[in-house]
User: Fold this.
Amino acid sequence: MQEVVTPKGDYGHDLNFTCQDSAGAIYDLTDYTVTLKLWRPATPGTLFLEEECDIDVAVSGTCHYTVQEGDFEEAKTYAGELELTETVEEAITKVESMIPVRVIVTESG
Assistant:
């Protein structure tokens, strides 16, 4: 599981991820779109956040999500996943969920 920490109410900074499968193998993100999906642990069926990540270095499996104003207004821990969607010649050919992620929002200041 990958964990990232961010202060409550802060925005404009990146949450950095490396896309790996359950065995720890790095995914080459060439031709993929990466979506960060988060939910509150008590309500796993209801998405709290679903946003596309920017890919940094495709062959290294690295990507980031830039936190937007209003994203994390409460100090909580959010469960989530990185969803990879492969697109070849404008057709989606595969959707895969990566190992789970956890976003820990701390009190700021």
